[in-house]
Amino acid sequence: MDRDFLQDLFSVFGPVSLRRMFSGYGVSVDGTNFALVLQGSIYFRADEQTIPRFEEEGSRPFSYDTRGKVVTVGSYWQLPDRLYDDPEELAQWARAALAAAERAAAAKRTRRPRAKATKSVANVAAKVAKPRARNAVKKAAKRARKNARAAKSRPPKSPAIKRRPVKKRR
Q1: In the chain, what are the domain boundaries?
Q2: To which H or E segment does residue 135 belong?
Q3: pLDDT tens across 124-148, in order?
Q4: Quick one: average pLDDT of 92-114?
Q5: Strand partners, 36
Q6: Which residues are within 8 A (CB) of 69 and not within 5 positions of it... i.e. 6 or more apart?
């Protein structure tokens, strides 16, 4: 699928941004990625509200092979084939996928724990000092290795003045 085909396909839905992603494209609106175009298919973002609709259509989640196992990504489901010919209904599915992507982004923002504000100064200083000491030891070892390599590669020093043997006169 090329860019022009995808722009035409989503024309009823509205303007979308296509960005190269993996071996295909990511389809987004205002920075929210709601669809993937991979392996010659379109996969829409899905969640617990929209997955039953995909299952009714006989769609399957996005999956790929890696080192002898199959990885399934349950948050992206394949677009039913009949929607490629029906842009109005495709726009409805795209709006549902965009809503699912926005819900997932909102849930992700609220799950992030806040840092505790009651940490003592001693605990913070101890955590900072340990990595610094480790870094100092690593830097010293690196300098020593570098100096040893440099010493091996230098030619041996020769005396500044070489004396010639004096010839005896007859």
Answers
A1: 3-110
A2: helix 121-153
A3: 555 665 666 667 777 777 888 888 7
A4: 85
A5: 26, 43
A6: none
Q: What span, in angstroms and rounded, lies between the C-alpha atoms of 132 and 143?
A: 16
**Number of neighbouring beta carbons within 10 Å of residue 112:** 6
Q: Which residue has the tokens 């084939």?
A: 81
Amino acid in the structure at residue 25: Y
Tokens of 117: 């504000």
- For residue 20, give both structure tokens: 């190269």
Could you tell me which residues come within 8 angstroms of residue 87 by beta carbon, excluding any fewer than 6 positions away? Answer: 9, 11, 12, 13
Q: Return all residues near 21 (Cβ < 8 A) that are at least 6 apart.
A: 36
CATH topology of domain 3-110: Yope Regulator; Chain: A, (3.30.1460)
More confidently predicted of 19 and 140: 19
Q: What tokens appear for 16 in the block?
A: 């979308």
Alpha carbons 27 and 35: distance in angstroms, whole number: 5
Provide the 8-state DSSP code for 66.
Answer: E
Q: Report if pTM > 0.85.
A: no
